[in-house]
Amino acid sequence: MEKLKQIYEGKAKKLFETEDPDLLIQEFKDDATAFDATKRGTIMNKGVINNKLSEKIFGLLEEKGVPTHFVKRLNDRDMLVKKVKIVPIEVTMRNIVAGGMSKLLGLDEGIILKEPVLEYHFKEDKLHDPLINEYHVRALGIATDKELEAIDKYSFKVNDELKKFFDSKGLILVDFKLEFGRYKGKVILADEVSPDTCRLWDKTTKEKLDKDRFRRDMGNVEEAYQEVLRRVME
Ligand code: 5GP
């Protein structure tokens, strides 16, 4: 499968058409951005690492019954995916207080939540992906009831499966962001699942092994991504 016309370039990925109108090639870049792209940089080999990690995680989720856009990994940086229409909602699932939740509610990072928290954010960088609820989603027609039902069900399932999976690798899944897309009348998981989109802490030392190292200038960013890949592939 070859890359034809580029149809999109985002902060971390590019999308290309292929000869099959239902399939795209998703290319993972090393570019890193944070705080709605006001902070920019490069994480060496991030694209290669996130491509492999996403392959592994999408494969695992498919096995567990979560439909995804993943078809196959083509090479170091390219993945063949189904062409979806992205639902403009970023779903955040949280198991432990960190980042946005800590800021929003004035809570210390690290508080273990009694149950997972699912949040919808309207996907619009210039508004800083504002927090919305299911009434906004329905009233504005952002997604149908049926789509929202599927999004919720899959998001909790992804959390259950990935919590178990990362735990077996000595990692705590603190929180993560998912994006869904419409494909042939159904909602499926799209985008990527990687240390760019998940907070992962070492189970014993609580060391951060994710994009927060870049956001907070903590150093050893590439090493942290490599460490997650090493453990996931073990
Ligand atoms: P927070 O709302 O605390 O900033 O983010 C919660 C989780 O979702 C974190 O794991 C974070 O990496 C992920 N996340 C939220 N929004 C974005 C986004 O726009 N881009 C990326 N890469 N991850 C996000």
How much beta, percentage-wise? 25-35%
Task: Summarize the biggest pleated sheet.
Answer: 7 strands, antiparallel
Q: If helices are DSSP runs of H or I spanning 4 or more residues, what is the number of helices?
A: 6
Do you know the CATH topology of the largest domain? D-amino Acid Aminotransferase, Chain A, domain 1
Helix content: 25-40%
Tell me, what is the CATH class of the largest domain?
Alpha Beta
SSE pattern: EEEEEHEEEEHEEHHEEEHH
* Poorly predicted segments: none
Number of strands: 14
Category by helix and strand content: alpha+beta
Give the overall shape: globular
Mean pLDDT: 97
Note the quaternary state here: single chain
User: In the residues, how many domains can be counted?
Assistant: 2
The CATH superfamily of the largest domain is identified as ATP-grasp fold, B domain
Features:
five-stranded antiparallel sheet, 234 residues, binds guanosine-5'-monophosphate, 6 helices, D-amino Acid Aminotransferase, Chain A, domain 1, 30% helix, alpha+beta, Phosphorylase Kinase, domain 1
Task: Give a written overview of the molecule.
The chain folds into 2 domains: 77 residues, Phosphorylase Kinase, domain 1 (2-Layer Sandwich), CATH 3.30.200.20; 148 residues, D-amino Acid Aminotransferase, Chain A, domain 1, CATH 3.30.470.20. Helix 1 packs parallel to helix 6. The longest helix has 23 residues. The chain is of the alpha+beta class. The protein is globular and about 50 Å long. The model has no long low-confidence stretch (mean pLDDT 97). Bound molecules: guanosine-5'-monophosphate. The site of guanosine-5'-monophosphate has 15 residues, from strand 9, helix 2, strand 12 and strand 14.
